[in-house]
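Methods — Computational structure assignment.
A single polypeptide chain was analysed. Its primary sequence is given first, followed by the predicted tertiary structure written as structure tokens.
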Amino acid sequence: MRDVQNSPIGVFDSGVGGLTVLRELYRQLPQESILYFADTARLPYGNRSAAEILQFVREILIWMGKKNVKMAIMACNTSSALALEAVRREFDFPILGVILPGARAAVKRGKRIGVISTSATAKSNAYRQAIQEIDPNAQVWQVGCPEFVPLIEQNRIWEPYTRQVAQKYLQPLVSQNIDTLVYGCTHYRHLAAVIKDIVPPTVNLVDPASYVVQAAEKELKLMGLRQTTPPLPTQFAVSGSPEIFSQVSQQWLGYRPLVEQVYLPTAHHSPFTWEEVEVLD
């Protein structure tokens, strides 16, 4: 019987966006071991169909199941919006998404709430529905920001063009006199300095990464799954280039991680059809 308590927490995203969740795990749950996966070969997720996202998420969770994770955190709003409810019924470990924790935090901060997200998340209306289920009187404006993730993944955060793009996306929300702005994509926290320079200082900024980790801590405690042995070093894996991910992530991690490239198992017939995962040299 495997030692479930001391198994890792799985965290996944399309790229470096989920590092915002990883950093919160380091801060709030430093005793836990973590397996981080970035699906960099298929990013950005924001222009994918719901069927594609569900397929990708199943493949990632099958791989994480083979790695014996005790919990998985979707550090990706698009996956949380389009696939969370379906896959929760299919796997035998808890799976957490970022949208509900983010929505709960937002309604505590304001009544005029702006959400910046990928186009897929915006079209899903997941944030509006979650926020207004909690507070029917809250007003919600959503803006899809398709250029943000590629700019972040290409390490172009400080270029003048990125600020121009941010201005274009944020201006409609500022004009609505929002009092709260939700980072509806985990990547967007990496643009915090740019965003803070555009929105009024009175606007509350909500990063769901912090709140999903709080939810994870409660879940682990409730299920008796808190780690009891010293944590292992974080394992990093990607579906694309390990070198590019390692280089780009260094600025947020404070170190250059050792990253392996993996082939994901397929999930064409059933999420429980386990296939061998081949590690690339």
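Note: The chain has two domains: 9-97+211-261, 99-208.
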